[in-house]
# Entry
Amino acid sequence: MNIFNPRILDASIRDVTGCLSDTQKADVLLHALQHLPLEGSRIVMENAIQSFLHVSGLPSADVTRALLLRAKTRIAAGYRTSAQQDLLSILSSNPTNQDAKAVMQSEHLRQEMLIKKPDGSPRFSVEIWRDIALYLPKRDLKSLLLVPHALSRIASQLIFREIDLHFTALPEPPRADNRYRYIYGDHDEQELDTWHYQRSADILTRILVDPAFASQVRNLSVYAVISDPSHILAFQTGMLINSLPKLGNLRSVHCSGNKELINPMLETLFASNHRIYSLSIDLVHRSGDINIPPFKHITHFSITTEGTNSTSIYDFISQSDANLRSLVIKNTNWRFPTDIISVRHLTAIEFQGCFSADSQVFSDILSTGHQLESLTLSSMLECTLSETFRLYRSSLPSLTHFALKIVGLHRHVVDRDLVPAISEFLRDRKNLRSLHLIMPGADHRRIGFDASAWGVLPSLINLRSLCISYPRDLSPSLAGWLVPRSVRALTMEIMVPPAEDLFLFMNQLRPGVPPLLTFIGMTNFPIRSAISLIDDGFSNVRLVRIDESVWSVIRLVDGSIEIERWPFWRIEYHIGTWLESLGCEDAIRHLV
# Structure
């Protein structure tokens, strides 16, 4: 029986072409391509012609035949623009080519209609410019508003995805330390209020009359944090309530004010059926309880209040348990609601409240928080926790941020193994990027905090943000080397000012300072000026914090250094934008 295996023919062709030169192989390939059908072979044709054109020394007639084949295949597949480019290349080298003209005639094309290569820089589509602009910080987007280009409109759309409205300006808190001169800028407090009134009214008016503008808004923040004797706030609140139904794509809301502002705002948002995912509320001045409607899609919820009644808030948290992934509670009188929420669903917890003597909060969080990536806890400590941390030494495997601030100890609490247990809990965590460990200055030895607490730091090899109390028994010549080399933002809260002066302290600390440090913060340390801190120990940083004051470091062309003190409103409202512009994003948790 005569049996033929087609693969033998494939092998024979491969063997024969293997003996040919590149030019001869290209000639065989071109001859074979002429037998391919135009329909359904575009990808094969594209790859073959591309490889054919990379062969050097080919006759111009063969190149023309190859381009003509690719043009016909592209036309058959509907790629007329790329086909026109091939035809233009053929006619550029041979204007009398009849085959190319025949294709043009059959497709009703004239030579002047063919796409020519641009003489200047490439013209990107709006979509490409938008993708580029998405990588720019907000301050650069504001600069693009002045460019007479499509980028101006794109920048405007991206900037106004996030809107903040200041109905009343937050007054700067009194400063006990007046050693540093403060520059308010172009507006005093009254002028700043007037500017905010006009700006808020302009934005709300634009939302009411421009549906396209309103549809761009994704994040809305409203601030009204002081009393309103002139009743201007009532008018602005009315405009806001009328504007909220227009924001059809709103996804994140923050409101800081009293219940007269927050309650109608939440009711309007709920009635408008907005798909809100993030809700943040800051209830000021003990202004009473608020009622939160049953939003169905909340994944992040934050509440800051001084009130004592948690019933309505915890009812809302209980209703949102199935969707909630991030929870922030700030009230020194409240307890963490482990009985109404599933900690196993949460990826982020921030709690500033009360840990009573019989509290099981830490045990519940450590035992069930398998998905937690961020854990921030701050409280007066009334219970012992060392056994809990040692029992769940390997829990929270996904943790990237851990913060524990103990503001004080109950007089009966003595847990000298607490800080050693926390150190073991944190040791060798490769995923940890941020660590804040703040201890009370007067009673730190009752919970075992001393120089040995810094011994865990070298094992955190990927740490980028560190805020930690500095014990008196820690040598500055050793402290710098204990900080991981990967740290970009460092804040040291000095528990007891060292006996030596600043110059000697910094001179010993300086050799071990991480080389990539961009932010340094020092608290409770008698520093004469920010310049001295930079000159004596941290010459490469871009941002400096001393107690509650923040300075940008400006390096001039001649090598000299100037500093610019940040106004209070920049720290309070625009910290993220400014840190991004300075490349100090890792310092965000050091200043909020």
Residues 189-209 form the longest helix (21 residues). The CA atoms of residues 282 and 304 lie 5 Å apart. The first strand starts at residue 162 and ends at 168. Confidence is low (pLDDT under 50) at residues 176-187.
